[in-house]
Amino acid sequence: MTTFAPDRFGPLARRITRPVEIGGVQVGGGAPVVVQSMTNTDTADVATTSKQIGELWRAGSELVRVTVNTAEAAAAIPRIVERLAMMGVNVPIIGDFHYNGHTLLSNEPACAEALAKYRINPGNVGFGKKKDTQFAQLIEFAIRYGKPVRIGANWGSLDQALAARLMDENAQRALPWDAGRVMREALILSALESAQRAVELGLPAEKIILSAKVSGVQELVAVYRDLARRSDFALHLGLTEAGIGSKGIVASSAALGVLLQEGIGDTIRISLTPEPGASRTQEVVVAQELLQTMGLRAFTPMVTACPGCGRTTSEFFQELAKVVQEHVRAKMPEWKISHPGAENMTLAVMGCVVNGPGESRHANIGISLPGTGEAPSAPVFVDGEKTVTLRGEHIAQEFVALIDGYVQSHYGAARAD
Fold it and tell me: Domain of life, per the record (predicted)?
């Protein structure tokens, strides 16, 4: 039976899971939901991979996974970890293994030592008689080096022997399940039975995270609800192959939002296909914004902005909202150190008199810009009180300066006690 506890960041109840430590980052056990991401570089290219890991970390990724698929990639891992340390990038690196992980870790013990966690897919760890042996070898490396593992089953690489077994069992039922339910059960059992086997081999349950990913929203919700009911392992959430652009963002948010609202999930990854030429960091930003809008975490000041209507024919409020959003996100790495707590600040950029003053009063700092036909002035509200009215060509710069001043006076080391 699932057990819940109050979440320290908001009113949502959280499913109680076993805590897993990954390179100093706790996942599960009541810890905040952790944001993670994955590189798309050739891991053997130390410079390029290290650069992208640094970008993901600076964007806010608390764990970063890399592909370890070749001898060259495995040999590069210790050099990547060393290079990251020289760059001042302190993020645990997870090795993603498929098919040949047992061989790579055996041949490159420095890789096994340098990684903070191993990801194992029970659907393609090995085939036939080799499957159990090769899975056991991977678990033995985790035990030897004291590493946690994610046992990550995936709809696209399901254990076919297990699926066939469940299909045969289903055929014997008086009321057979539909094929979709059988496949969901196969995915769940793949994760649970592999975790049980890992425990039997000697890996503590506190070093196991489970995932069971599919690419459909309703299927993902159903799978994780069932998985949460049947275990107390920490769970990694993600809609696999979510897609590109708004489709990927909406699908991931719809699925993960439901599960997080029900207290399910200890770490998340948003598996977006980047737009051509776009930064890989978008998946980190989406994950952060999902958690923050749900009240589970705070990463950067939240900006409430007017969507615009016939009363707001000028684009200035849109431009100001963009300036403010980009400014606070750019400043947050600095504020996180010098002014902790600034991530909880709320801001409002409103476009006319209808909701502008009211929304601005609800924010820590809000500005109500003039709509079409309104007087060319913009009152600013600080903690509910009107403090100044901005006019002229430098409203954006002056408003940003007010934000910076508020941070200086209200948060962290600079705050007056």
Answer: Bacteria
